[in-house]
Amino acid sequence: MKLTVNGVPRDVQVAPLRRLLDLLREDLKLTGTKEGCGEGECGACSVLIDGELVNSCLVAACQVEGAQVLTVEGVAADGQLTPLQRIFVERGGSQCGICTPGMIVAAHRFLSSGQPATNENVREAIAGNLCRCTGYTKIVEAIQLAAGEQLASPEPSGRR
Amino acid sequence: MTIPVTSAKTLRDAYAVLAEQPRGLRVLAGGTDLMVAINARVRLDQIGHVLDVWRVDELRGVSVREGVLSLGALTTYTEMMRSPVVREHLPALALVSREVGAWAIQNRGTLGGNVCNASPAGDTLPVLLAGEARFVLGGPRGERKVPADQFFLSYRKTALGADELLLRVEVPLGGRLVYRKVGTRKAQSVSRTFVAVCKNGAAVRIAAGCVAPIPLRCRKAEAAAEQGVGVRAALAKDIAPVDDIRATAVYRSRVTGNVLLRLLEGLAA
Q1: What is the mean pLDDT of residues A113-138?
Q2: Which of A127, A135, B75, B263 sits 20 to 30 Å CA-CA off B140?
Q3: Quick one: A2-74 is in which CATH superfamily?
């Protein structure tokens, strides 16, 4: 079946109930997306399907035929980190790193939603992404700073 | 073992599978329940065939006609939260959708999935029961409507036939519907108890979750509430809570009564 991953058309042979997570990590070797709980609680496997945030461990391969999938590997444009990613690095938004790809994808989706980056809105947007280091303060700060930069810059940065 | 899968694009595709009545048929929508079970290999041998209906657009859409709110079975929590129609006509359903899971779950989890999964802890179910919703079931033999309080038969068993699919949920509008979800935190946790009340003139409809093997209408409590006496004692006769990992039966009895009285007070004010 065909699908598009990070803007690249892909043609894959896959069992219909294979998890999108395994399709990405094992078949397409896009290992940025992580597996945490495997039951939709932790958000480590967050990706976007047609622009909407999902847990890739709960999506069957047969449900993404013809879809546009965005993983953490596709967030940066032209090899350049987005402001969100750069600020995550600078402000210590990443500690052990297991939640980071999912956090980046969820935060990337939040920044494209047009919602004001209030503390409450940001926390609700990443409520499905658990950080086992409990480094939420730095993560929320980084997202809010990135939202501020996005507002200040004329170009809508990092949107796809 | 490979489970055969049919990805239906239309209702006709889906009905063709239903007509065969394959053994162990499971319907896949957003996957927030079924994929969890498949990933954990829970009773995998009992799944004989998966019918994927996620792309069946005939199962989508929200509308109001002649005082009835109609919600396609594939309506997601995100759609219920955002839909101006749901927010205007049945705000309780929009509000409760916001308390189920986080964004990623709300984008995939569906109203029809919540109904057919038939968990006693399904958060939309007491709302639908108190609102006297009807479930429209369809299959190769035709369509029929089942009132919500006749749909849940026993623990996770429903009135859905082997060759039937939930098409949509209809809720007659009127009255004021309020609810209270009690979990370990405000949102995004499985409920310990859940109460919904709909008041329409003198009539009171009460439903509760997590206090019996099925989500249930509390008819004795309704009669007591309409007379204004003995609500807590009547409710105790409706519900049959148990001890489990999330709460004790004693906690559930007391808190369900407290929450119901509070909701009734709010509606009377």
Answers
A1: 95
A2: B75
A3: Beta-grasp domain (3.10.20.30)
